[in-house]
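Thread amino acids onto this structure.
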């Protein structure tokens, strides 16, 4: 009986809240009537249309968006405007600066550059930007090369055996090791079990955030925190936070004791160094906030670099002609070099870069991004997106627009040769965002992938038992993934000679 009363009271509260919000924001709801909407149910809205198994979430969104370029979707009692046309998305990205993740990632990666309010984000961007400058990226090259060569050695175990392996776990582990070393300045190996558990927790973070996004009953924080404890996932969260918290605390103390040494131009070797130097000059930057900034950079870097590299390797294994062209480019470029240099990564490997860009188009890692409008935004046809509206920008779907790409479902690096690129609207590729809140780590991701692929192709020929990769094999959580893995067979280049 008591439970029934509580449920009824909660329902009444939700209904009253919706009525109050509609009265208070009358213009907002009037403007939203310009856009089509599916019939909605009381309390749950259209939420059932996206609820279901994680493996089929992309299919559900495909069906949801197929009839419409613009759609008002009701997430319980909250209206969300879905947009999937390039010109609409660019308009919102250029005019609306507030990214909104609905607080659904906070328990895992805190509040930082990915989900801060705009004014706080500007502080984070200013402090972190030097960590991704050309000068700092050059300092990371030793780690890029070291981890890429370790990956090459790992693949020796399966090379020439005829065994086909799923490369996902290998690449993800390598990228976790790379970003942790470049961000906090320690290797996973040197930290023992704590480092390994922290690496495993990074791997788990985005998957668990994605589960929460498509499970409406997990949205309330008090329910989610109970869920984390019951399932034991709160321990994984602690493991995720543990290593950066410990290293950060030690480095902050050292910085305060040896400030003059750290202020020297050559003293910054990691992302954490830059964060401490800039953050301690900003009153709002507590050690917890610095930790959250690092967690978000680590998580985003691992997902972006790993999944793009996985899809790229699979595409090169399927498209043997493209693989040969990339191989010839890197062997000519690295003929007299054992390692990839910053100059190689910044200024050369042009065809490999085309392949990477095409991979980020067809397999866009950010399925969508959310913005909350801080003012009314006028779309190209004059329709108005109201102030304080949550907008779902369908980045994955815009990259399959036939008006932008002639054969959008085909993986083809020629989509990014200079002549073809100039024939499309500016900023047609939105894989790394656009506007004020575009991805800070785009060059970092490019350098990571270029270095890995250069070393791998220099040592191995890639093949697969797949003739093509069908769109139906895609699934998505926060990032796009393959349902069937990334099956690759490695053959030593020496054996082919």
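Threaded sequence (497 positions):
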């Amino acid at each position: 009986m008591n439970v029934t009363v509580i449920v009824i009271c909660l329902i009444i509260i939700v209904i009253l809240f919706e009525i109050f919000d509609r009265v208070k924001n009358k213009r907002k709801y009037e403007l939203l009537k310009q856009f089509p909407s599916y019939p909605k149910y009381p309390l749950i809205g259209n939420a059932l249309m996206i609820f279901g198994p994680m493996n089929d979430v992309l299919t559900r969104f495909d069906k949801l968006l197929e009839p419409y370029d613009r759609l008002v979707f009701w997430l319980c009692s909250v209206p969300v405007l879905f947009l999937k046309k390039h010109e609409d998305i660019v308009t919102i990205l250029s005019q609306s600066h507030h990214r909104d993740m609905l607080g659904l990632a906070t328990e895992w990666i805190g509040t930082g550059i990915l989900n801060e309010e705009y004014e706080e984000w500007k502080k984070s961007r200013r402090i972190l930007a030097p960590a991704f400058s050309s000068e700092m990226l050059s300092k990371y090259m030793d780690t890029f090369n070291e981890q890429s060569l370790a990956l090459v050695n790992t693949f020796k175990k399966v090379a020439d055996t005829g065994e086909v392996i799923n490369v996902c776990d290998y690449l993800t582990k390598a990228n976790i090791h790379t970003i942790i070393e470049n961000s906090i300045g320690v290797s996973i190996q040197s930290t023992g079990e704590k480092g390994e558990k922290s690496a495993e927790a990074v791997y788990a973070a985005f998957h668990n955030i994605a589960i929460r996004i498509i499970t409406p009953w997990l949205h309330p924080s008090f329910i989610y925190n109970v869920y984390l404890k019951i399932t034991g996932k709160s321990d994984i969260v602690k493991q995720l936070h543990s290593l950066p918290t410990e290293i950060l605390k030690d480095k902050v103390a050292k910085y305060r004791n040896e400030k003059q040494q750290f202020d020297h131009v050559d003293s910054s070797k990691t992302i954490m160094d830059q964060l401490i130097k800039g953050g301690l000059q900003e009153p709002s930057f507590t050690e917890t906030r610095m930790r959250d900034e690092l967690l978000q950079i680590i998580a985003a870097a691992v997902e972006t670099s790993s999944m793009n590299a996985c899809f790229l390797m699979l595409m090169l294994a399927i498209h043997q002609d493209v693989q040969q062209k990339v191989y010839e480019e890197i062997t000519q470029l690295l003929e007299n070099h054992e390692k990839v240099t910053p100059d190689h990564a910044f200024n050369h490997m042009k065809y490999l870069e085309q392949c990477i860009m095409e991979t980020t188009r067809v397999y866009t890692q950010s399925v969508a991004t959310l913005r909350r409008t801080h003012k009314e935004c006028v779309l190209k046809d004059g329709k108005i997106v109201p102030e304080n509206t949550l907008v779902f920008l369908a980045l994955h779907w815009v990259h399959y627009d036939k008006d932008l790409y002639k054969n959008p479902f085909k993986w083809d690096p020629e989509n990014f040769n200079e002549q073809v690129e100039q024939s499309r609207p500016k900023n047609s590729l939105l894989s790394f965002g656009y506007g004020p809140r575009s991805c800070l780590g785009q060059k970092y991701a490019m350098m990571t992938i270029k270095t890995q692929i250069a070393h791998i192709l220099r040592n191995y020929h890639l093949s697969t038992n797949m003739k093509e990769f069908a769109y139906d094999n895609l699934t998505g959580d926060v990032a796009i993934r393959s349902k069937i893995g990334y099956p690759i067979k490695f053959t030593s280049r020496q054996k082919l000679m």
